[in-house]
Design a protein that fits this description.
- The chain is mainly alpha-helical.
- It folds into 2 domains: about 220 residues; about 210 residues, no CATH class.
- Helix content is about 50%, strand content about 0%.
- The protein has a two-stranded antiparallel sheet with strand order 1-2.
- Helix 10 packs antiparallel against helix 11 and helix 11 runs parallel beside helix 13.
- The longest helix has 26 residues.
- The chain starts with about 45 loop residues before the first helix and ends with a helix.
Length: about 475
């Protein structure tokens, strides 16, 4: 098959802080309230040839081949990504079919309702398709799946939470000693996936409170070691690459909740920070990286210069201007008297995720603008304009969630924005709509927002007005 490149945008350039004396004027007017903001970009995105190239890549992706038992059978190839020094943790033969019906139900719940949370930016859906097959010969990975699935059921229904605790502890009993005793463990793909899954379990134990308690951190000590070890493998493909991106999104969430910097050092990663033509999931991942950079700027101690701020803002502007036309919503309707949020429909998870990270980054950049007047008559009007822009971004994130309700992270991102900026809303009907989003995130998807709801009610003085 002849390789035909994707069509290119009319303008492509890499942003350099030294090239920017100030932010683009268009960056200050990005909070949209009408369909006019959704003009297609000059970037055409997918082409039939590009889709064919992806299909060809998929056919040669070893991580998607059928699972084979590892090592005990010398006549068969070893499972890709499994270290020989860790072969003792693998079974000789797969455990399928499971004899315990309850465990089979947990596995099915993971595949049907939980795995999608991991595969937002992964066109090959590794956590839904590859990970369950790997778990057939890796008890540590299988226990991690059981633990997360059981926790999801207990958070969204009346399932016994102690079942999740049991599988969680069983997984940690095997995983933590391996991290302590074997340097090869942090390079094992299946243990990496186990760590990602357990960290997700801990995420849904972490309340979205809008506060920064010192004890909100991962109990899984090896999580950062695992993710850091994968940084140079972000272009290698397969489960390792998929897990890296999930781990980075998890780190963004935890850093956001705790208002701290991002832990992995991304400066030396093989990460695509360009604006070249690429598939939708690549554009989404580029925005994930930009959001991580913004969090490091806002909550870190290293660089708070105006030059860096301008670079981050202009990078977000370029992502918006050069994104593929596929990122245009298939339906859009402004908010009105009956609907607090705009109605915005997208066709895929990666497109939705790209927009959500864009708006999270814009909210943070707006709130941490070093160019706002600190004194004088202009400060009040500047702060008022900042609040209005932040509120517009929050409303869009909520609109994305309520318009695309089938994926839990849509409500998680909206809830993150609400906890950060919900106190700026003064109208009762808007406040009630924001609480509805937080409540849906909690009761339907299992993400704890009770603390955030109580904090906002206090900030809005609801107790005094009732």
């Amino acid at each position: 098959m002849d390789d035909v490149p994707l069509s290119s945008p009319t303008k492509r350039r890499r942003v350099d802080p030294d090239d920017l004396g100030h932010a683009s004027a268009s960056a200050l007017d990005f909070a949209f309230s009408s369909i006019d903001s959704w003009h297609p970009s000059p970037h055409t995105g997918w082409t039939p040839t590009a889709l064919a190239n992806v299909a060809e890549t998929l056919s040669y992706d070893d991580s998607l081949h059928g699972l084979e038992p590892n090592l005990p059978y010398p006549d068969q190839p070893a499972l890709d990504g499994v270290s020989e020094s860790l072969s003792a943790i693998y079974l000789d033969t797969p455990v399928w079919p499971l004899s315990d019906r309850e465990q089979a139900k947990l596995l099915r719940n993971y595949v049907e309702h939980v795995a999608r949370n991991f595969d937002l930016c992964d066109p090959y859906r590794h956590f839904r398709t590859v990970v369950p097959q790997r778990a057939a010969i890796c008890p540590t990975l299988l226990n991690a799946i059981f633990a997360l699935s059981a926790r999801h059921l207990s958070r969204t229904g009346d399932y016994d939470p102690f079942i999740s605790n049991r599988y969680h502890q069983e997984c940690l009993n095997h995983l933590i000693p391996m991290l302590d005793d074997s340097a090869a463990a942090v390079l094992d793909e299946n243990l990496l996936a186990s760590t990602i899954i357990l960290r997700h379990l801990e995420e849904i134990e972490l309340p979205l409170s809008g506060q920064s308690p010192t004890d909100q951190s991962s109990h899984l000590l090896g999580a950062h070691a695992f993710i850091t070890a994968q940084e140079r493998a972000t272009v290698g493909g397969g489960l390792r690459q998929a897990a890296f991106w999930v781990g980075l999104r998890q780190e963004i969430y935890v850093a956001f909740v705790n208002q701290r910097s991002i832990m992995p050092a991304l400066e030396h990663c093989n990460i695509d920070r360009s604006f070249e033509a690429a598939p939708d999931h690549v554009w989404a991942c580029r925005m994930v990286v930009q959001c991580a950079d913004v969090i490091r700027y806002c909550f870190g101690d290293d660089d708070s210069s105006i030059v860096t701020y301008n670079w981050l803002l202009e990078s977000a502007v370029q992502w918006h201007d050069l994104k593929p036309s596929s990122f245009t919503p298939v339906f859009f309707k402004d908010a009105d008297d009956e609907n607090v949020f705009p109605d915005i429909w997208f066709l895929s998870d990666e497109i939705t995720a790209g927009w959500q990270y864009y708006y999270i980054a814009r909210i943070l950049l707006c709130a941490h603008n070093p160019k706002l007047p600190r004194l004088g008559s202009l400060r009040v009007s500047a702060l008022r304009a900042m609040d209005e822009e932040i509120k517009e971004h929050v409303l869009v994130l909520c609109g994305i969630a309520t318009s695309n309700p089938d994926t839990a992270p849509n409500f998680t991102y909206a809830s993150m924005a609400i906890t950060l900026a919900g106190d700026r809303f003064t109208k009762r009907h808007e406040q009630e709509a924001l609480l509805d989003v937080l409540n849906t995130c909690d009761t339907r998807y299992g993400w704890p927002t009770g603390h955030a709801q109580e904090n906002l009610k206090a900030a809005w003085n609801w107790a005094e007005s009732s």
